[in-house]
TrEMBL record:
It comes from Sphingopyxis lindanitolerans. Pathway: Amino-acid biosynthesis; L-tyrosine biosynthesis; (4-hydroxyphenyl)pyruvate from prephenate (NAD(+) route): step 1/1. NCBIfam families: PRK07502.1 (NF005694). It comes from the Bacteria. PROSITE patterns: PDH_ADH (PS51176). Its EC number is 1.3.1.12. This is prephenate dehydrogenase. GO terms for biological process: tyrosine biosynthetic process. Keywords: Amino-acid biosynthesis, Aromatic amino acid biosynthesis, NAD, Oxidoreductase, Tyrosine biosynthesis. The lineage of its organism: Bacteria, Pseudomonadati, Pseudomonadota, Alphaproteobacteria, Sphingomonadales. GO terms for molecular function: NAD+ binding; prephenate dehydrogenase (NAD+) activity; prephenate dehydrogenase (NADP+) activity. Coiled coil: none annotated. It catalyses: prephenate + NAD(+) = 3-(4-hydroxyphenyl)pyruvate + CO2 + NADH.
Amino acid sequence: MMALAHVTIVGLGLIGSSIARAVQERLPDVTVTGHDASSEVRAAARTLGFCDVVADDPAAAVAKADLVILAVPVGRMADAAVAIAPGLRADAIISDVGSSKRGVADALGQALPGHLVIPAHPVAGTENSGPAAGFATLFEGRWCIVTPPAGAPDEGVAAVTGFWQALGAKVETMDAAHHDMVLAMTSHLPHLIAYTIVGTASEFEEVTESEVIKYSAGGFRDFTRIAASDPVMWRDVFLANRDAVLETLQRFNEDLTVLQQAIRRGDGAKLEDWFTRTRAIRRSIIEQGQDDAAPDFGRKH
Ligand SMILES: NC(=O)C1=CN([C@@H]2O[C@H](COP(=O)(O)OP(=O)(O)OC[C@H]3O[C@@H](n4cnc5c(N)ncnc54)[C@H](O)[C@@H]3O)[C@@H](O)[C@H]2O)C=CC1
Ligand SMILES: O=C(O)C(=O)Cc1ccc(O)cc1
């Protein structure tokens, strides 16, 4: 990997602080500077000590950086890029960790003309947010998808790829539009379903709130974990990846109608066939040792 001496992380929440902690543990020779727009988060970062330096000013934070990683909600990427622009070295690589890629890549390209932008998405996280929620092992054995723009220089892609591998991630590259379609299905739609079902349950007149809590040891409990994910982050993901999410939602609704019809008609064979197929999918994921990792995204560039 290209020698990285100095990495700056902008946004010191779950993902930014996890990157900083992982660099401290795995790349001890790399200096980490952090910046966050929130003074409370900057104060927490100083107390927690996962950065070598926490800078109050975004442009000053990036002045020495070989690599800058933007770890802010996808709707804030453009603001964050504009704020660091005056301080960037001409040869710095700018990357991000946003959960959707096409809109972010466009926004960063526009905000940072002439700079090398290589977006990425570590497909690893939790329902928690903030600087105290991060941990150094978050990316170990998990996928990180790098979405280089057309014509991106190999050295830049290799630097971002090598960085994530050094943090323990497995790296795949694909174009941003393909990323957004795959993640709409495997991550964004499941979050939307969880937000829906937990909201629906809480409004269901016959089920009191205490019963929702009492009986949530079943499948519902898994949905409540996902539905506890950060509201601002996920608001931005759905707004940014609107087209791909609506496309997958359309297919999901059609399939839901098929199952609804099977239940109404008493078509047990249809239900059993469907559930047998999904059980086989889960079992093959486990056999491939991928139950804790992203599915095979298939397309390599
Ligand atoms: N939470 C998760 O599980 C995952 C999140 N991501 C992506 O990572 C990014 C960050 O998410 P989290 O770390 O979970 O969020 P978080 O809410 O824990 O942290 C975001 C931080 O960004 C700061 N911030 C907001 N606007 C800013 C600006 N203009 N300049 C500087 N700082 C600013 C906030 O003060 C906050 O501390 C998002 O784009 C999200 O889509 C990617 C993979 C997993
Ligand atoms: O907590 C979970 O189950 C997640 O799905 C975490 C997550 C959230 C957003 C991402 O872009 C990637 C991973």
